[in-house]
Known about the structure:
Elements: H1 2-8, H2 15-20, H3 30-40, H4 45-58, H5 61-84, H6 90-95, H7 97-103
Helix pairs in contact: 3-4, 4-5
Amino acid sequence: MLSWSSTEEGRQVNLSAVAEGAGDVGLEHGAALLRFASACGGTDDAELTEARAALVAETDIAFMVDAAAVAANFEMMTRLADGTGAALPEERLARAADQIATMGAADLVSRR
């Protein structure tokens, strides 16, 4: 979705930086967003607290709340897909092959 939305807005996003969790993402507030997103997906409560505070300091609380809502929505969609056994159609996987490789997503295994 990030690659689609950035293309729609005429922005170039560095998906390699997103996958690595470091570097210039190519978005305004990208470093703070990347840190926050990484902390949302982790298990370090102290890092999440610090990343949230850093994002608020760089933007504002409404921006952070929006970012948290996006993270929560992705978590919900992943759980729904896993819970129902949903799979992407082969043609969609073929179109997304480059993005999947860049993100290292082919190596991810479901927790099921």
